[in-house]
Amino acid sequence: MEFNREDEYLMLSGIQHFQFCKRQWALIHIEQQWEENVRTIEGQFLHRKADKPFIREKRGDTLIVRGMPIKSNDLKVTGICDVVKFVRDSYGVEVSGEEGKYSVYPVEYKRGKPKLDDSDVLQLTTQAICLEEMLLCDIKKGYMYYNETRHRLEVPITKENKEKVQKIVSEMYTLYNRRHTPKVETGPFCKNCSLHNVCLPDLMNKRSVKSFIEGRIKE
Questions:
Q1: Alpha-carbon torsion 149, 153, 159, 165, what sign?
Q2: Mean pLDDT across the stretch 81-93?
Q3: Contact criterion met (CB below 8 Å) for 23 and 185
C-alpha cells in the first residue's frame, strides 16, 4: 500500500507507543482503540498550553511557536511539535514573517520523569527530522521538559538515532500495511499501559497467563 497523501501518513506520536509496546501501538493506530487513564489525562493537561497552533511568542532574540504541525514526506509521518524554539543566529534559516535568521530547536513536554528507554529521544529525533525537511535546516539538538522533575533536558540529534527512527517507521508501516496486531507479550510494563483492560482484560483480574490461555482454548 502506498501512502502518498498527508492524511494517510502515520502519526509521529506512534513512535513512542511502538517503542513501549508494539501491540499497544497496533491497538491504537491500527485497531483505533484507546482507553484513558490517569497518565493520558495528565498528559493531555500538560499539553494544553503547548498545543496552541501557530501561537508565536517573542522573547528578545528567541521566537517560541506552540503546537506547530509538522510532517516528513520521506518518512511519511505527521504530527505536532509541542514547542519549536527559534533562536536568532546568522548561520540559521529564515523564518516566515520574521527578520533575520534562526537556529531551530524542537521542545517536547512530557509528564513524569526521563524514561529508561529511548522512546522520548526517538520521538524528539523524529520531530527534528520533520523540521529539517520542512525548513531545509540542520538541527543539532532539541529539548525534553519533564513535568515531574520540572527539568529541561538537552538532547543531541544524532545520526544513529535518525537511523533508528527510519527502521522503526519502516517496521510500523510493515505492520500497518498488513493490518497486523502483534501477539500478547506480557511484562512489568503492562501495569502502566493505558490499554491493559482492552489488551488483557482477563489477565488484569490477576489470572495467570496459563489460565488465560487455557480459558481461551476452552471457549
A1: positive
A2: 95
A3: yes
Is residue 215 pLDDT above 90, yes or no?
no
Model's pTM, two decimal places? Answer: 0.78
Q: Has residue 3 got a pLDDT over 80?
A: no
170-184 mean pLDDT: 88
| Dist. CA 8–CA 4, nearest whole Å | 7
Q: What single-letter DSSP state applies at residue 189?
A: G
**CA-based radius of gyration for the chain:** 19
Grid cell 520531530 is found at 127
Q: In sequence order, what are the residues at sequence separation of 6 or more whose Cβ sits closer than 8 angstroms to the Cβ of residue 118?
A: 19, 161, 164
Compute φ and ψ for 69, nearest 5 degrees.
-65, 135
Q: What are phi and psi of 13, to 5 degrees?
A: -60, -20
Q: What pLDDT score does 219 carry?
A: 41
pLDDT tens figures, 112-167? 888 778 999 999 999 999 999 999 999 999 999 998 888 889 999 999 999 999 99
Tell me the CA distances in angstroms from 28 to 17, 45, 119, 175, one per residue in order.
Answer: 9, 20, 17, 13
The DSSP 8-state label assigned to residue 146 in this structure reads E
3-state secondary structure of 158: coil
| pLDDT score for 83 | 94
3-state secondary structure of 113: coil
Q: Confirm if 79 and 70 have CB atoms less than 8 A apart.
A: yes
CB 104 within 8 A of CB 135: yes
> On the CB side of 85, how many CA atoms lie within 13 Å of its CA?
16
